[in-house]
Amino acid sequence: MSGVSAGEVLLWVVLPYVTFAVLVVGSVWRYRYDKFGWTTRSSELYENRLLRLGSPLFHFGLLFVVLGHLLGLVVPKTWTEAVGISEGFYHFIATSMGSLAAVVAVAGLLILIYRRRTTGPVFLATTRTDKAMYVFLAASLLSGAWATIQTQILAGGHGYDYRETISPWFRSLWYLQPEPALMAGVPAAFQVHVVAAMLLFAVWPFTRLVHAFSAPVPYLFRPYVVYRSRDATVASREPRPGWDPTSPPRRRG
Known about the structure:
This protein has a single domain (6-218), classed as Transmembrane di-heme cytochromes, Chain C (Fumarate Reductase Cytochrome B subunit), CATH 1.20.950.20. Helix content is 58%, strand content 0%. It has 8 helices and no strands. The chain has helices at residues 6-33, 49-74, 77-82, 87-118, 120-124, 128-153, 166-174, 188-203. It starts with 5 loop residues before the first helix and ends in a 50-residue tail after the last helix.
């Protein structure tokens, strides 16, 4: 890797692979040795008014943020241009929809943090890993929002085309032919966002975020549950001795 400094190799080659290894190995370890801890540790019983507002905002916003990142990082620019999507149109859709999703996710996160700080029982149930999780989540979301504002919105025009630098670098990692030189000229705001995201994934297996891997796939293939209506006044079975009904049973037939 000629022309690349040791720091760039550390940031854009070593750190991504270490992050991926920690994510995979840590998740397997957590599942094997802490199955009962593989949960969100729901605090809905303590407070549900703010939770009903903040949780959907955060989860749906984050879902669309992740989908937008996957589209921008995984799908090559040549593919979208081949189907007639120009760079200008892609930039408009990615910036507008991505900004909206980020605002929704950040709003939901702020509500959840406010709820956790101001609701006594919820605050007492907050662990150190929960606090660290919120720090890394906030750092990743806010740095991404700032990168978008600084390099895409305030810059005007088409903004910074990350699909010619960050996206090829990301895919090169999966090809096992990393190209750290692609990240050398990337704006600092994007570099900070990428590092913050990698650190978030590194701590992911050791926080409640692991519940994201618990998709209810068997639910799709389970047998149908059959419900049959009946007269609510008719008992489903004969009264057992010693348990007399409060009113005379209806005569059948």
